[in-house]
Amino acid sequence: MDLAARPYRSVLYIPGSKERALEKAKSLPVDAIIFDLEDAVAVEEKPNARTLLTRTLSEGGYGNRTQIIRLNGADTEWGEADLAAAMDIGPQAVLLPKVESVGQVNRVAEKLDAHPACADTQIWAMMETPRGILHADAIATGPRMGGFIMGTNDLAKELNCRFRADRLPLQMALQTCLMAARSHGLICVDGVYNAFKDEAGLRAECEQGRDLGMDGKTLIHPAQVEIANEVFAPSDAEIELARRQIAAFEEAEAKGVGVAVVDGKIVENLHIVTAKATLAKADAISSMT
Ligand SMILES: CC(C)(COP(=O)(O)OP(=O)(O)OC[C@H]1O[C@@H](n2cnc3c(N)ncnc32)[C@H](O)[C@@H]1OP(=O)(O)O)[C@@H](O)C(=O)NCCC(=O)NCCSC(=O)C[C@H](O)C(=O)O
Ligand SMILES: [Mg+2]
């Protein structure tokens, strides 16, 4: 399936250095995995993590979960070797940390263009610095761009803002990135919820991200997967409503009318686009199981 058509309800970070977690993920019901070489890996473990990760990914076993490798930045001592190692296994996507300009995307794209194993490799961008957020629209136009991942921990650090349950200090950044992503047909996945044992807090933040328009949530622990999968999936009631809207609109159209009424609300062509997207998402989710 085209990467853009896949679901991204649950996008789990796995430290590239943790063999047990890399193995466990093969049986977790996640839509996508970020195999991390950046912040989840200690400095002294970086080279070993790169070797372990490339070997693990070459062996396979992750089924239809989208596989994304987060590299260290090109300005670090590990960035170049990370990209070279990732390119050799022809990954579905590489994720660049702390992207602040489309130039950073261009430079990686040029290297991917020159590598025979990377014809279909996408570039994803961590959106997690004030400069990156301000340049979101330009970054979204970069070659091979597939999606944005919100890095709300780094962003909060850079803004010097407080962590609040309503994430008010982050709203402008979340919405700016969503608008840029939607303008250019990219996926946009929300940031992590750090308190991985707090189910109620996670659910509330997932619901907020979903209501904003996010495709899903990045996660740090297997215990968070079920809630994200549930919140970001269309509910049975939404699927049933979408079907009724489509049927009612087709009936109206057959009579030469451009508007139908369902449950006391008008249904026009634009609502049918949303209804069809809901059904397509439900189908894509079904194909994951
Ligand atoms: C948070 C953790 C350090 C907790 O680890 P641990 O104490 O080992 O948890 P458990 O004992 O409860 O683990 C139970 C089993 O689950 C496996 N496990 C744990 N985490 C993962 C995972 N992420 N993926 C897959 N499997 C996982 C354990 O191996 C246990 O397995 P088993 O023994 O077989 O039952 C840990 O969860 C962790 O390291 N999480 C990831 C942290 C991380 O990736 N951080 C970086 C990304 S966040 C970020 O950088 C965001 C962004 O850049 C920003 O700026 O916001
Ligand atoms: Mg970060």
Automatic annotation (TrEMBL):
<feature type="binding site">
    <location>
        <position position="128"/>
    </location>
    <ligand>
        <name>substrate</name>
    </ligand>
</feature>
<keyword id="KW-0479">Metal-binding</keyword>
<dbReference type="InterPro" id="IPR011206">
    <property type="entry name" value="Citrate_lyase_beta/mcl1/mcl2"/>
</dbReference>
<dbReference type="InterPro" id="IPR015813">
    <property type="entry name" value="Pyrv/PenolPyrv_kinase-like_dom"/>
</dbReference>
<dbReference type="Pfam" id="PF03328">
    <property type="entry name" value="HpcH_HpaI"/>
</dbReference>
<feature type="binding site">
    <location>
        <position position="154"/>
    </location>
    <ligand>
        <name>Mg(2+)</name>
    </ligand>
</feature>
<dbReference type="GO" id="GO:0003824">
    <property type="term" value="F:catalytic activity"/>
</dbReference>
<feature type="domain" description="HpcH/HpaI aldolase/citrate lyase">
    <location>
        <begin position="9"/>
        <end position="222"/>
    </location>
</feature>
<dbReference type="GO" id="GO:0006107">
    <property type="term" value="P:oxaloacetate metabolic process"/>
</dbReference>
<dbReference type="GO" id="GO:0000287">
    <property type="term" value="F:magnesium ion binding"/>
</dbReference>
<dbReference type="InterPro" id="IPR040442">
    <property type="entry name" value="Pyrv_kinase-like_dom_sf"/>
</dbReference>
<protein>
    <submittedName>
        <fullName>(3S)-malyl-CoA thioesterase</fullName>
    </submittedName>
</protein>
<dbReference type="InterPro" id="IPR005000">
    <property type="entry name" value="Aldolase/citrate-lyase_domain"/>
</dbReference>
<comment type="similarity">
    <text>Belongs to the HpcH/HpaI aldolase family.</text>
</comment>
<feature type="binding site">
    <location>
        <position position="128"/>
    </location>
    <ligand>
        <name>Mg(2+)</name>
    </ligand>
</feature>
<feature type="binding site">
    <location>
        <position position="70"/>
    </location>
    <ligand>
        <name>substrate</name>
    </ligand>
</feature>
<keyword id="KW-0460">Magnesium</keyword>
